[in-house]
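User: I'm curious whether this sequence folds into something compact or stays loose and floppy. Could you predict its structure so I can see for myself?
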Amino acid sequence: MANLMYDSLKNFYQQFTYVPTVEGGKKLKKYPTYIVVGMGGSNLTPGLLALAKPELQIYSHRNYGLPALPKKTLSQSLVIASSYSGNTEETIDAFQKAVKAKIPVVAVTTGGKLLDLAHKFKKPFVQMPRGIQPRTAMGYSLLAIAKVMGEQSILREASALATSLKSSEFERAGKTLARKLKGNVPVIYASQRNGALAYNWKIRMNETGKIPAFSSVFPELNHSEMTGFDVKETTRDLSQKFFFVFLKDPSDNPRILKRMNVTERLYRERGLSCDVVIVNGKSPLQKAFSSIHIADWTAYYLAKEYGVDPENVPLVEEFKKLIK
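Assistant: Here's the prediction. I'll summarize afterward.
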């Protein structure tokens, strides 16, 4: 399965040539608020859409049903039910709840029960290409959701990634970082603005690398989490396995960048392992996906270092069988 994952990453840039089509149901209009309901890799793009266009009112809901918002707010929102497989239990429940409550809803999927429900209730849908893991289908997902929202500027910006993400430098950077991370637990730090990037990094370490990983954001971590790494002899054994990756974006608030630099210095003085990944790019989406692509390759080469399957998630499948 490693070859399938390798091919998915190597050809990731090609996803941005995809032209999504909204089919079925009534023609979609613009909505003041968008609620993306989905789990795991199927709900990783809303944070990136917010990076591309901060004024968007877009929210992620990762649970059964619909978020606890006033009925009027829900009725004026578009619920985007996102499930790559189309069989995600929580997302199907949310879709059905939206239909029952007569709240506008659209499906974004490759097929499965979710697509069947969209046909049954005559709701709009976007059917994406299938055959890869949801976390590696984020190009398809972002384009599909942007199409549903009618965000033409985001679609144009995303299409440019078909060229800029083609470079092999991402693989080289990921392979180098994987060697540093081997034997450690990654903790990914970013500004609050780039919190979605840090979370994406964490998810890739978990799902592809099959290792524990965590993420946190500035400035909040300076008021809480940081104190857990004020290493003393009695706690050194607890701290020595953590490896901190700082995602530094030159366009972040200078005060945030100062906090990053000082935190890194304090950690290094306490013998903690740290590395810096600069968030580079000409546009918000290029910056986001360039960073995430390095994370993808890092996690892939970590999986190879540990001799685990980077493609499948057997623990998740075992869990699903047990809760049926």
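Summary: The chain has two domains: 14-162, 167-306. Residues 14-162 form a domain with the Rossmann fold fold (CATH 3.40.50.10490).
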